[in-house]
Specification:
The complex is a heterodimer of chains A (253) and B (222). Chain A is α/β, with parallel strands linked by helices and 253 residues long. In chain A, strands 6-7-8-3-9-10 form a 6-stranded mixed sheet, sandwiched between helices. A 4-stranded antiparallel sheet of chain A has the order 2-1-4-5, with helices on one face. In chain A, β7, α6 and β8 form a beta-alpha-beta unit. In chain A, α3 packs across α4, α3 packs parallel to α5 and α5 packs parallel to α6. The longest helix of chain A has 16 residues. Chain A is globular, with a radius of gyration of 18 Å. Chain B has a single domain, classed as MetI-like (MetI-like fold, Orthogonal Bundle), CATH 1.10.3720.10. Helix content of chain B is 82%, strand content 0%. In chain B, α2 crosses α5 and α7 packs antiparallel against α10. The longest helix of chain B is centred in the N-terminal third of the chain and has 40 residues. Chain B is elongated, with a radius of gyration of 21 Å. The chains are: A alpha/beta (253), B mainly alpha (222).
Chain lengths: 253, 222
């Protein structure tokens, strides 16, 4: 690696994760450049969600290193970790909006408490982000009044309002009814056009083909193969990837 | 002797009304103090237990189990009649207040703890992922939800513990039952007891209406 190369926005080095006797991740190395959308595919149990959750330490890595803009995520105090987590937005499969707070307050809570933004600034930023996901008119609604797709878009706005350097998407559309998936993917596509760095764990292969810069295939806790979407989907090299792709397309048909 | 004369003798009512009114206030302010401090202490203990430190958790569990197992009256008698032998003298109302607060706190701690552990883990994670500290998640995300889910239980416990102020009669607190009891003994009439019953209704009917309002107000769809 030459010194002139720009710093990766997210860098995973020799990441290992064990749950007791089970080794979930084995020596994962992954660099995500600024503005890049990396799409992670793989069978269930391949470790892709665990890898994502290690990036903001919702899952504690057994060993290895993770850097965001060159700054370490591991071996730091909880206080520094809270600060680092502001730079890493996360979107969950289950949305996890706060059901007791309005949509607006969902988006302002961490701005106020973690970023210490003044109320007026946080509100303005929240409305801007809600507008971006097409839900400004729902600012005063309660999460329970929204569809799954709308809840997920609010969850995206909640993460974006903190001005993260990288966004992690953990199967963001898996819990949605098929007709609601499109609205969430559209927001993600807009984000990508806006230059956001993203790692997406998902089964939306069509979206991966259209929007991903790079597709990473994981199986058995290792990265088996990676490349541009055309390569991965059009010319898979490993037997495991070929088997996975035929299984997935078989399901889709 | 007819029914009205036994249970609602106008002269007896007039005689004991001033004492009864004072007793009603004693019952009300001790109840209010107990409910406020019991809810606060119970929530605080559940919050401490959420830190999952063994040296913090087991004294809390022991406290909650003891307070829920022992009859409040036994604790009051020990504190009021037992402690003076050690030279510790507590006033009657303080013993009543202290014991009821601790008992309420024990139940409230268990109620909150059950909810803290049953909320989806994603609520904790969503908070943590947005850079909130453990305390901030607990205070802003978890507790408000725990309060809302448990309002019916918390209200019930608060009403029950408030009625236990009647135990104060045993250690001489001048609350409703105590005043009515001595008035009955002194006058030989059952009328003061009827007055006590009516006094409780006057206090607790509005309290129940208020609790229904609170339950509806903070109900939200999941």
């Amino acid at each position: 690696m030459s010194a002139s190369q720009p710093l990766p926005t997210l860098e995973i080095t020799a990441l290992e994760k064990r749950f007791g006797e089970t080794q979930v991740l084995r020596s994962i190395d992954l660099k995500v450049a600024n503005g890049e959308l990396v799409f992670v595919i793989g069978p269930s149990g391949s470790g892709k969600s665990t890898m994502l959750r290690c990036c903001n330490r919702l899952e504690e890595p057994t060993s290895g290193a993770i850097h965001v803009n060159g700054k370490p995520m591991l071996g730091i105090t909880r206080r520094d970790l809270d600060r680092m987590r502001l730079q890493v937005g996360m979107v969950f499969q289950g949305f996890f909006l706060y059901p007791h707070l309005s949509v607006l307050k969902n988006v302002t809570l961490a701005q106020r408490k973690a970023l210490k933004r003044p109320a007026a600034e946080a509100d303005a930023r929240a409305l801007e982000m809600l507008d971006k996901v097409g839900l400004k008119h729902k600012a005063n609604a309660m999460p329970g009044e929204l569809s799954g797709g709308q809840q997920q878009r609010v969850a995206i706005a909640r993460a974006l309002a903190l001005d993260p350097k990288v966004m992690l998407f953990d199967e963001p559309t898996s819990a949605l009814d098929p007709e609601l998936v499109g609205s969430v993917l559209k927001v993600m596509r807009d984000l990508r056009e806006g230059g956001m760095t993203m790692i997406v764990v998902s089964h939306e292969m069509q979206f991966a083909r259209e929007a991903a810069d790079r597709v990473v295939f994981m199986d058995g806790g290792v990265i088996v193969e990676q490349g541009i979407p055309d390569e991965i989907f059009g010319n898979p090299k490993s037997e495991r990837l070929r088997a996975f792709l035929s299984r997935v397309s078989g399901e889709a048909a | 002797m007819d029914f009205g004369n036994v249970f609602l003798n106008p002269e007896i009512i007039a005689t004991y009304m001033p004492q009864m009114v004072r007793a009603v206030w004693v019952t009300i302010w001790i109840s209010v103090l107990v409910v406020i401090s019991g809810l606060a202490l119970g929530a605080f203990l559940a919050g401490l237990r959420a830190y999952q430190k063994r040296w913090l958790a087991w004294p809390i569990v022991l406290f909650a189990d003891l307070m829920r197992a022992l009859p409040p009256l036994v604790l009051m008698l020990i504190l009021f009649f037992g402690l003076p032998s050690l030279g510790v003298i507590l006033s009657d109302w303080f013993v009543l207040y202290l014991v009821l607060t601790l008992v309420l706190a024990a139940f409230v701690e268990e109620i909150f703890w059950a909810t803290l552990t049953s909320l989806p883990r994603g609520q904790w994670e969503a908070g943590a992922a947005t850079g909130l500290s453990f305390n901030q998640v607990l205070v802003n995300v978890i507790f408000p939800q725990a309060v809302r889910t448990n309002i019916p239980q918390l209200v019930n416990r608060s009403l029950t513990i408030s009625k236990m102020t009647a135990y104060g009669s045993v250690i001489g607190v001048k609350e409703i039952v105590s005043v009515a009891g001595s008035a009955q003994a002194f006058s030989g009439s059952a009328t003061p007891l009827t007055m006590a019953a009516i006094a409780y209704l006057i206090i607790f009917f509005p309290a129940m209406l208020l609790s229904r309002y609170v339950e509806n107000r903070f109900h939200y769809d999941h």
